Each structure stands twice: as structure tokens, then as C-alpha cells.
Amino acid sequence: PKGAKTFEVTGSSQVEVFVVYDPARVTEPTGKARWPLDTNVDVIVSVDTASKDLNDLKVKVSYFGQHEDSALGHGVLYVTGVYISLDVDTGRTGKVKRSRGNKKTWRWGPEGYGAVLLVNCDRDSLTSTEPDCADNQLVSLADLQDMSPMVLSCEGPDKLFDNHKLILNMSWSDSKRLRVFCARGGNSLSNYKQVLGPYHLSYEIKRQPGEREISFYVEGLAFPDTDFLGLVSLSVSLVNTGTLPEVPLFTDTVAFRLAPWIMTPNTQPPLELYVCRQCDGCSWLHEKFLDDMSYLASKANCKLVICPQIENRNDRWIQDEMEFGYSEAPHKSLPVVFDSPRNRGLKDFPYKKILGPDFGYVTREIQFSRASSLDSFGNLDVSPPVTVGGKEYPLGRILIGSSYPKSSGRRMTKVVHNFLQAQQVQAPVELYSDWLSVGHVDEFLSFVPTSDQKGFRLLLASPSACLKLFQEKREEGYGEAAQFDELKYQSKRSINEMLADRSLRSDSLYVQKCIDWNREVLKRELGLTERDIIDIPQLFSLKGSYAEAFFPDMVNMVVLGKYLGIPKPFGPIINGHCCLEEKVRSLLEPLGLHCIFIDDYLSYHKLSGEIHCGTNVRRKPFPFKWWNMVL
């Protein structure tokens, strides 16, 4: 009003009124004094409950002259309170709770926040031929357990929504990586409608009269990768349809991170041991091998799964074909098999026989070229949890063999390497394995669990340790004891002959230099000391410019808890015992481990592989939650 200089403001009981001012320019009134009508004074109105009717809340402003006690006039603001909130499991407890905190960002660590999405890569429907994330619609109610719940709260007078609407939306880039289903209750698939996803970027939510909450399920479609950091978001907007153009009055946004694929090291307890049945000229030997695997699995209280010949199609290298891992959200953990791009006889086994209800599947295929030996997953391993220079890796670090440090040679294909790097939680370490004929890291290293504070030891194949052992035995008078003495189908080599073989010695010393280079990388990248490493005696010979194990490669073992299935080396027999076996027992059994030596000579070793190459183990997930990592 004309002549007004000051004002007072009051509100209904459900309305909070705040006066905000610049204390350098405005003095807060005391006694009967009032607020000046000044551009440095703002009035903020807040409502903490939703209205029952339109305009049922009021804010009254009374205007006064410079000295008058009676008001010159009044202004009334009619307010309708509406509560709009999009909520997900930002606290990572497995349940959705209303949150007024920061929902649009995602933070790592034990004090972090932000919801998690599983990639729905299992196959819950027995009639489907593809992973659930490839389906365009919900085909099973069990599918909902692989998704993350989301709740929209929309409280307010029903009449408000006559000229206002709620719009759920996402970006085009995110539409390739998630889908949203609206749930209207009931136990029928028809009660769950896909509302967002590929080519569907927005959805007008049909709020029913009196409806205060609307439930949704969010489905992840893609793992993090080189072109995708793993973060996606969804937004809901309250839009005024009574104006042209329509105006969004409020937007609430929530962020998700797609759960990574995680590998499990030998230190995790075994759940299932996989091995292939072979039907060839040595089938009787292979049946003995399967019996040995059965015994080993029973000792470790682990289920044995035998892949029949009709499914493996004469491909026995099941470790090379796939790697078992898992993916986890606060509400669910999902085992996920990673299918390698090697695509030999076992190429269909992971997809056709492992993929199924609550067992996911992921793969990365090589475009425009063929896979090399280094793309097989015998060339993929993971360390136990380590701390390196104060930085913790609570899920361990992935180990990949390559031609590094050479500028040329065989390397793991980029599409697989980049995928592993993009998971973030097990930062890969590149090792040098291209000196081997097959070129896999499992030919020269393994990890075994221990019950001491360290929790594990790194085992490295060691030609130097083997030559030293043989030298000691010769000095003790056992120079005529022979390697392969127990084998009828292999020429025997006495200790004296092996030590006198300049070519064998030269080859093994070259290999030792290659392994020593890796030793220093592993010490540096895994924070290890010499006390954490055990040298396993092993000789190698060169075929051309690449190395092969001279006798069965003992580090290429299968680890089932404290039980180790070790390739039988057929070493020199001294006092009735294999001196190589005795040496390995003396190194490992004081740590509480049980060494079980298994004959794989004809069925695996002569075909350039060993027990680890011919087996695969699914293990328990880590108890540590990946989202608690500090990156």
C-alpha cells in the first residue's frame, strides 16, 4: 500500500516462515519494531506436511507506515502443500527409506551413499533363451528380485493433479543401461508395466485418487565398461499443465551405480569344482583323474560338477573358457560367469549350462580378429585382499598376463582388458607371460590360503629352487635318482644328467629371469615382501623361443580351501619318496595346507596344460561390500 515502510508476516500452524536478511545492511527488529520493506530482506515459506485441500494454508503479510500501529493493508498468500519424493536405497541397507539428503550423487566408502543396481544378467524363465536383461518385458515375477525397488511419494489434494502431472524421465544414454517397471500390486505379470527403457525416455505417471505412493522396480542392463562409468540417474518432475509452455515446478533426482563384476581368489572358500569328462585313448587315465577330483572335492566339502563330453566337445580346458565371479547389491548377491572369447569346444557351455535362474552371464567378444592364447582365462587371476603403500584393495587385484614390458607380442584383447579395468574395484596388474608357449599367468603363479595374519602366500615357479634341490641331492649321493622314474611312457633323466644338461640349465635360468621380473612387479603392486612368497621347484625348457614346463607344473594347482590338488611331478625317488613332492610338502604343510598330488601327465601335461587349466572353481563371494571401497 502507499506509504508502507515496514511489514509483519505470519502463517498457518503448518507453515514455517523465515525472514532472511543481510545483517550488514538490515538490523533485526526488537520489541514492537517491524521488518523494513527492503530489497535486502527476503521471506521464505516452508511447508512440512501435505495439504488435504487446495489452498488450505495461508501466509499473511501486514504492511505498516513508518510510525503507525495499525496496518495500512494486508496481503494473503494461499498455499497448497504437496510432497513429491523419489526414493531408493541410498543408505545401502536393502530397503527403501524416505530421504531428504543428497540423492542425485553417488559416493564410495563406508560413509558413502547412493543406490546400487544389479545387471539382470541371469535367466529366471525356463522358456527364455536369453538373459533377462535382453527381454523387452517382464517374463517372471522372480525377475523382480534382481531389480532395485524405487518408491515415488506423491501426497497432496487430488484436485491439484487435475492441472499438474508427474513425469518420470531419464537421459538417452542411460536408456541403454536401465529399464523401469511400474508396479500396481498383484501377483500377475500384467501388474508390472515397463515404463522406461531403450527408446522410452519419459513416462507420465497416472496417479490414482488418494494414491500416496507408487512403486517401481529398476533393472540394470549393462556392466561398467570403457564407455560407461557405471552411473545412471532417474528424475521425477511435478509439471504445471495450466500454463503454456508447461512448467516443471519441482524435480527430484536419484542416482544409481551398476554393480561391478567381481572375481574371487583362491583364498575364498570353494562351492563347486568343475571338470570335463574326456573320451579319448587315455580315458582310463582320465577316469582316474576324475576319481581324484571327486576325492579332493569331498575333502574340501565342495560339490563336484562334471561337464560331459557331449557338452565340452573334446575341449578339456574349462579354466580357459570361463571365470566365475559375482555381482552384488545390498538386497542380493548374484553369481555371474564371465565367458571368454576363446570360443573352442566349450564355447556354448557357460551360456547353455551355467546361465540360469539366479546365475548370471557376461561376455565380451572380439570384433574383426581372432582370439590369441592370452585371451583364455587361464591368463586371468586375482590376488587376495592386499594393502599397497597404505592403499587398501579389500577385493584383491586382477592379474593379467601380456607381452609387457616388450613393445610387441601377444596381449589380452582390449575388449576384455578394458572391461576388467572398468569394474574399478580390483584394479588390474599387467604381468609378463608372453615368454611361455601357452602364455598364461597360472603357469608360474598361484595363491594359497593360510591361517596367519597375512592370510595367504604367493607361490612362484622357481627353476633356481629346483636346480638347487637337485644339486643338494647329488651332493648327498643321489645323483643317479631319476626324473620320471615312475612313468613307463617317458624317458628317465637322472639328477646327474639334468644338472649336466647345459640347454636345460640355460633354458631354466632364462625362465627364472622372466619370473624374477614378475616377482618384483608383484611385490610392488601387491605390497608383498619376500616372506610372503614361496618358491616352488620347477624346471622349464624352451621350444623355439617359448618356454614349457619340463615336468608337470606344480604351481598350476587347484586350491580348495586348505586342500591342494597339485600336478604329480614324477620327480627322483629318494628313500621311497619323490624328492620334489617332499620339498613342496615341507614348504606348504607347515602352513596348515594338505598337498594331494594327482597324476595329470598324459591327460593334461602332455597337452600343454595342468590341473588348474583343466578345472574351474566357483567360490563364495567376499563378505566385504564393494561399495565400501575408498577409491
Instruction: Give the CATH H-level superfamily of the largest domain.
Output: L-arginine/glycine Amidinotransferase, Chain A
Low-confidence stretches: none
The average pLDDT is: 95
Cα Rg: 34 Å
Give the helix/strand class. Answer: alpha+beta
Principal-axis shape: elongated
Number of helices: 9
Task: Give the terminus-to-terminus CA distance.
Answer: 60 Å
- Number of DSSP E strands: 40
Largest sheet: 5 strands, antiparallel
Query: Helix fraction?
Result: 10-25%
- The fraction of residues in strands falls at 25-35%
Largest sheet, spatial ordering of strands: 7-9-14-11-12
CATH class of the largest domain: Alpha Beta
Q: Would you give the CATH topology of the largest domain?
A: L-arginine/glycine Amidinotransferase, Chain A
What CATH architecture of the largest domain would you give?
Answer: 5-stranded Propeller
Question: How does this model look, in words?
Answer:
Its cofactor is Ca(2+). Keywords: Calcium, Cytoplasm, Hydrolase. This protein is α+β, with helices and mostly antiparallel strands. The chain has 3 domains: 6-79, Immunoglobulin-like (Sandwich); 83-258, Sandwich (Immunoglobulin-like), CATH 2.60.40; 263-628, 5-stranded Propeller (L-arginine/glycine Amidinotransferase, Chain A), CATH 3.75.10.10. It is 15% helix and 33% strand. The protein is built from 9 helices and 40 strands. The chain has a 5-stranded antiparallel beta sheet, with no helix packed on it. A hairpin with a 2-residue loop joins β20 and β21 (332-339). The protein is elongated. The two termini are 60 Å apart. 41% of the residues are buried.
